[in-house]
Design a protein that fits this description.
Blueprint lengths: L3 E9 L3 H14 L4 E8 L5 H6 L7 E8 L4 H10 L4 E7 L3 E3 L3 H11 L3 E7 L13 H6 L8 E4 L6 E5 H7 L12 H11 L3 E12 L11 H16 L4 E6 L6 H15 L3 E7 L3 H10 L8 E6 L4 H10 L8 E4 L2 H9 L7 E4 L3 H12 L2
Parallel strand pairs: 1-2, 1-4, 2-3, 6-9, 10-11, 10-13, 11-12, 13-14
Antiparallel strand pairs: 4-8, 5-9, 6-8, 7-9
Helix pairs in contact: 11-12
Length: about 375
């Protein structure tokens, strides 16, 4: 039996006021037996002196590790991962503020859903901001009714990322080839997804992220981001923007197959856009639930009436000039024929009812370009 329910790993590099706020919120709001492991990356301000004086409480034990140089968050987290004593691990940035129930909600969600491997909480990182004048903890409490709900995402972000221990045992540690921060968490999420796990946002958990507490101190951060992105694309391929034109009714079995196919492509790191024939507000709201499928943040839905559907499909392609589609899939021969006639105006290939194997092969080829 594990000694702790969760090992919370926080990496520090200067930013004393941020880490003070983070630790105070963890001690005040964590209701499950946990260990807070703080790895300091050679801070030059008073952070180290503060960390040496830290003490835990009944729920949270504290351990501090000191690095002699700034190893970056990936390497620092790997140091902590070498000594896991819990069922779950949570990466937590030093510039975050957690709220009551933040951790227990995510742990319960992970425990009740075998397919989930990594979890982000709801956050201002995802444009979820408390109403003006509403205290942060009150806003978090208002989300408790959604504690059993989640939204699937293409990857999790390490500002606050819960991971099942079994996932770490299966996929190993973080790739240390990324320079400092950026893309190493996306890479880790993709590794988990390829191993069969889902990445989700817990709707009933909330963590505020101040942002750039450490990366804001790094010189040439944009150049580092580009270098890391290049490494990520070489390893996983670039994300594609794929339009799927669907003429089947939402209650049709073929529609469910199309939606399921889009979710699978989204899990592979792509952005899916479904242009759907028909106008049904209830379907717009409940289409995933009615199909018995998990809602995915990278699957975007848009409806169009029957009368203008064919020409509107073409318009959907032509208006995407700056962020054009890489691939278009249609289940309607008339739509596919029209799109092919206007193909010189855009770069995307058009496929008519491709088989699953053919589609997977084409997508792999495009991602590697």
């Amino acid at each position: 039996m594990a000694k702790y329910r969760c090992d919370i790993i926080v990496v520090t590099w200067n930013g004393l006021e941020y880490i003070k706020g983070c630790v105070n919120s963890v001690l005040a709001c964590t209701g499950v037996k946990s260990r807070l492991i703080i790895v300091d990356n050679a801070s030059r301000d008073d952070t180290r002196e503060y960390l040496r004086g830290l003490k835990g409480n009944d729920n949270v034990d504290i351990e501090v590790k000191f690095n002699s140089e700034n190893a970056g968050p990936g390497k620092a987290r790997n140091i902590a991962l070498g000594d896991i004593q819990a069922d779950f691990v949570c990466f937590l940035d030093s510039d975050t503020t957690v709220t009551p129930g933040w951790l227990s909600v995510m742990i319960d969600l992970a425990g009740n859903n075998r397919e989930i491997g990594m979890i982000n909480p709801s956050s201002n990182n995802f444009n979820q901001v408390p109403p003006e004048c509403m205290p942060l903890n009150d806003y978090a409490a208002s989300l408790f009714g959604y504690k059993d709900k989640y939204l699937e995402v293409g990857h999790c972000i390490s500002f606050c990322m819960l991971i099942k221990k079994e996932v770490i045992e299966k996929i190993g540690f973080i790739d240390e080839g990324y320079v400092l921060a950026l893309y190493e968490d996306t890479d880790y999420s993709m590794t988990a997804a390829r191993a069969g796990y889902r990445c989700v946002i817990a709707r009933g958990s909330y963590v505020w992220h101040h942002g750039h507490g450490s990366t804001g101190q790094v010189r040439k951060i944009n150049a580092i981001a580009e270098k890391n992105k290049e490494r990520f694309y070489k390893k996983w391929g670039r994300p594609l923007r794929i339009l799927q034109v669907v003429s089947r009714e939402t209650k049709n079995g073929e529609f469910k197959n199309a939606l399921s196919s889009s979710i699978q492509l989204a899990r592979d790191g792509n952005y899916m856009y479904l242009f759907i024939k028909g106008e049904d507000p209830s379907a717009r709201l409940n289409i995933f639930e009615q199909s018995g499928l998990a809602e995915h943040a990278n699957v975007h839905l848009k409806f169009c009436g029957d009368k203008n559907f064919i020409w509107s499909s073409l318009w959907q392609v032509l208006i995407k000039r700056k962020k054009s589609y890489d691939l278009i899939i249609s289940d309607d021969e008339r739509v596919a024929s029209l799109l092919m006639k206007f193909a010189p105006l855009y770069k995307a290939a058009v496929l008519l009812r491709p088989g699953a194997q053919d589609l997977a092969r084409i997508v792999r080829g495009l991602k590697s370009q």
